[in-house]
Structure formats: C-alpha cells, structure tokens
Amino acid sequence: MGAANTWRALKCSVKGHSHGTMQDYCDYWASPRGDVVVAAVADGHGGARYFRSDRGARFAVEVALDLAGMPFGRPPARGQGLLAVTHVPGSEHAWLKKGLSESIAREWRERVRADLRSEPLRPEEVATLAEGRDLAPEQRELMPYGSTLLLAITHSASVGYLQVGDGDILELGGASGDVYCPLSHDPALVANETHSLCSFVENPRRKALDEPSWDYRPWEHARSLFRPTSDESPAPLLILLATDGYSNSFKDYAGFEQIARDYAAHLQEPGGRSSVEGSLETWLAETSREGSGDDISVVLIYDESRFGCMGRFAATSHDESDIDPSGRVPEQGPEHA
Amino acid sequence: MTDDFSGLEAIGGALRPSIVILGQAAQSLASGDEPPAIAARQADRSCGTFTLQEGRMGNRPGGELAKRPLHFFWLADCSGSMSVDEKVQSLNHAIREAIPEMRRVAAENPNAEVLVRSLRFATGAQWHVSVPTPIESFEWQDLDAEGSTDLGHALALLTSQLKTPPMAQRALPPIVVLLSDGFPTDEYGPALDALLAEPWGKKAVRIAIAIGKDANLSVLERFIGNPEVKPLTARNPGQLVRFIRWASTAVLKSASAPASQALGALPGNVPIPPPPPDNAPSAAEDVW
C-alpha cells in the first residue's frame, strides 16, 4: 500500500481587464486530515441577458461543494433544506454523471428561485429577456443566472471530475511532467457559446400541446470522469480547475498547459505555497490584461505528500529559456536518494 | 462490497462510508465519458533530480500570452451591374472610410485582435485580401466590377477558412459582411448549407447590405439566418457609408466582448446592436 495523499488547495479569482463586474466564482473544501479536497469553479455568462450570472456562478459553486462534500463529511454550508442526492445504485461514475450532476442542477435552480422570490426582476430586466427567441417562462427565469460549473473531488483512493460548459481541467502527472486533460473539450463549444446550468432541451416526449416544449436537463450535457488511484495508477501530482478566461489568454494550448508544470515548480520550493498565494492574483491579472480580458478563476489542488519526493520542475522563463519543453533542466547534482 | 449509495440521503447529517465504498472500488477501471489511458499514467512515482533555475519565483506561469483573434470578412459583389451608377466606387469609398473607425474600435477593445480579409465575387470568386491582416495595417485596394454574380463560389472560399484549423478554438465569433446588388447566378444554396454546417460558419455574425432596390433580399435573409437581423438596403452612397460603418464598428465592438451565451438559448451568440435609421429616403435621394 502506498503513502496516503495529503491534498491541499489554493484558489484565486480576478476580474477581467475588460469587465465591469466579476462573473466568476471559485471555492474549495479540504478535509482536516488532508485526505479529501472538493473544489469548484464557475463562470457566469455575463452579457445583457445574464445580468445576475455573478450570483448564478456563486450558487453553482456553493451547491456543488455542499452536495459533493456531503459524502466526505463536509457539513453543508446552508444547512437545512438541501435536496437529497439522488440515489443511483451502481458505479461511482453514475453517481457523478447522473446523481450528483442532476442534484446540483436541481438545487441550483432552487437557489435561483429563492433569489427571485427575495428580489424579483425589475420591469426593464423582464423587457430585456423578452427580446430572446420563444422562451418558456421557466427559461426566462433561469437565464439571468446562467453559469458553467467545473468540479473536482480528490480522495485518498480516487479522483473524480464533473463539468457543465466551458473551462479547463488539467492534471499534472508525477516526475514525467506530462499534462493531461481528463475531460475532452466539446468541439461544438466555440465562439463563446457554452452549455450552461440554465440550459433547457427540447422535450422529445411531448405528446400534447399542454405539455412543456422544453425540459430542464442541463446534466445531459455534463461530462464526467471517475478514476480509482493506487500505487500502480497514482493520483495526479497537481490538478487545476480554471474558467475559460485563463486558457483563452494563451497563444496556444501548450502555453496554457505549461501552467501546471510552472505552478508545481513554484509550489515545490520552500515556502512555495505562501509565495504562490502572494503572487497568484498578480499573475492572473497580468494574464487577463495581456490575453483574453476575461475574468479568471482558478483552483489548484496538489498532493503535498508527494512534492517532497518528486522530481523538481523548472518554471517557465519569459526572459530566456534554456529548458526543454517538458520543463526539466539538466541534473545539477543528486537531490534525493 | 456494495456500490450502493443509499447512505447519501441524509440531509445535513454525517454521512458514512462512501469513503469505504470508493476505497473498495480502487481495483476497478476508470469510468466516464472518455476514460483516460490508464497505462500512460502508471508507475509515475519515480523521483527525478531536477533543479529549479535561479530567479524564477517571480515568473508568471504559462507560455506566451495573446489577444483573441477576431476575423472580419468583406464579401463584395463585383458583378457587371455594380459598375452602373458608380455603385462599386461608392463601395470602395465606404469601406475605405470605415477603416479608421474600425481601428478606433479595435483600440478600445485591446483584448481582441481584429484581422481583416476580403473576397470578391463576379464570374467565380477570388480573395481580394487573402491574408488575415491586422486592422492597424489594413489598407483597402479598390475593386472593379465585371461579370456575373457567383455568390456560391465566394461562400465556398469563405467556408474553407472557417474550418478548424485554420480557425483557432480560442477565436472570437467572426464577422462576415455580404454586400450585393442583385441575384446570385450560381447554385449558392449548397454552398450556404455547407457554410452553416461548419461550427464557425454557423456562429459567425453574418450581416448583409443590399446595394440598391434590385438586390434579392430573400437570399440575403437566408445568408443572415437570424430572424431578428434583417438585411439593410442602401439606396444612395450616403446610406451605404452609414451601413458599412455600422457593420464594421458597432457590430465589431459587440463581437469583441468576451461575454458567453448559453448554447441554443438565442438565435445568435452575439447581440447585434440596432442599425442606423433608414431615414426614409425620398425618391429624389434614391440613386440605386
């Protein structure tokens, strides 16, 4: 049996260089023993019709942490009133893909409805929504809060991911320095269009005119992955969740993937966590300013127990570079036995 | 061992032993929409011996940063009828007049890199400016007019540039402005269908300006493909200047903003600002 993981996390959000208000949100929960981290980021759509998507993003993250953290002992932040996680007998993937994703969506919708009850839309906001195509009242109800969601659950024996909409999840594997995308990108999501927690699908079962034309089933577009881990198939060294403003800021995707190695390089240094915490906001602000102009939110999850015995990574040099693309630098001397 | 998750029903209470369940499942293969190649990640616990280079702690993570590309296309009808009543001359003038305004909009949206190209179609179609040219250095070379109206050929050339690649995943929605004074003389329908079958073609902001009252508005409406956006009809050079300026500035500004749209929620993924008023021209002002 291998050494137990010690999962730690960091988070940061910055407002887009070209934005008026922040539409992103992110948060995480780490168990006191370090054997579990549950993390989520969400990207409110912004734009004229999504005028409460900052709240929608926050609701998405809060609900995701509440529901995904429950099996691991995290008390739900909002206490009473949560819908039960749908019981889905079978594999853990089914829990992620069907049970958890559906429960998150339904609970998110309840949070939206509660917000509307406490603060109804103003007449001018209602008029803005009326400009859309033929939307059902419930679609208009949820649209202002539209948001994506990315979720990661790291555990001593497994990792799991859930994603609705755009954004990126990266894994960094051990000493090889290889970076992976555990969930493939949806090729249909281009030109700023995304799946959303506010999305409806056409009702294929509609048999009568008085039945709804649209169904609320955003989980049908969710992507998910569950992977058990072991000594033979170890967990990633580092996991990164980010809204799409981050990857959209780089000239190419390889430049974005490099962040996983670079963050690992910084974290592995003595005092690395404090240094990263102190620099993260500056780095993200620079990235938005020089790149996409969009809000950027990121959560880093890393296995602290394995940083001590993994190979070191060289951070990217933006002045000069004499390191190869894998991030390795020539051996200077024995670092570890 | 059970895969049963019935222990998850407690609301707000302590849950149990899903951790045990997950631990027991460690021998199973990964599952998901796209299971990763497990073999590629095995046996990765070796300790390397690398050294962090000096002075790297301040470095921003990641590679080279870049603005998001925004591709702008002019599709210009250069058929023989465009040589009548100086229509093509007015078109050349209007586009040239719009360039400084496009540069101003681009400067106000510094995170979008506006890249301009143009296509001419008459008998067949050709690139007038084939290389995506930064608006800051874009110069308009006058078009002349002779031949038929092969819109389908132009759409086929456009479609080839809206595939991925060469389009980058991170690009902003492209803008295509079609200018025509008449009827297509080739089979444009299949070419238009092929354009709209491409994700970038479907999500491009498509604007159409009719030059004169003889243009086929139903073709232009079909090209736009958005019931909320109608083709504009320019009946004199002044209107053409205003409409081209609107298409190349107000629409450009809207497409430059990085706001997202829920897939399928709205007819278009970029909010189109209202066009300039028609000013209900009098018959005396109508030239075309």
Task: Kindly describe this structure.
The complex is a heterodimer of chains A (337) and B (288). In chain A, the strands form three sheets. Chain A has a five-stranded antiparallel beta sheet with strand order 1-13-12-6-7. In chain A, helix 1 (53-69) crosses helix 2. The longest helix of chain A has 27 residues, at 92-118. Helices cover 29% and strands 21% of the residues of chain A. Chain A has 337 residues and is α+β, with helices and mostly antiparallel strands. Chain A is globular, with a radius of gyration of 21 Å. In chain A, strand 2 and strand 3 (36-43) form a beta hairpin. Helices cover 29% and strands 18% of the residues of chain B. Chain B is α/β, with parallel strands linked by helices. The radius of gyration of chain B is 27 Å and the shape is globular. Chain B has helices at 18-24, 87-108, 151-161, 188-197, 199-203, 217-224, 237-256; strands at residues 31-32, 68-77, 112-122, 124-134, 175-180, 205-211, 232-234, 261-262. Residues 1-29 and 34-57 of chain B have low confidence and may be disordered. The relative contact order of chain B is 0.13. In chain B, strands 4-3-2-5-6-7 form a six-stranded mixed beta sheet, with helices on both faces. The N and C termini of chain B lie far apart (81 Å). Classes of the chains: A alpha+beta (337), B alpha/beta (288). The interface between A and B is large, with 136 and 88 residues. Strand 11 (223-228) of chain A pairs antiparallel with strand 1 (31-32) of chain B, so a sheet runs across the interface.
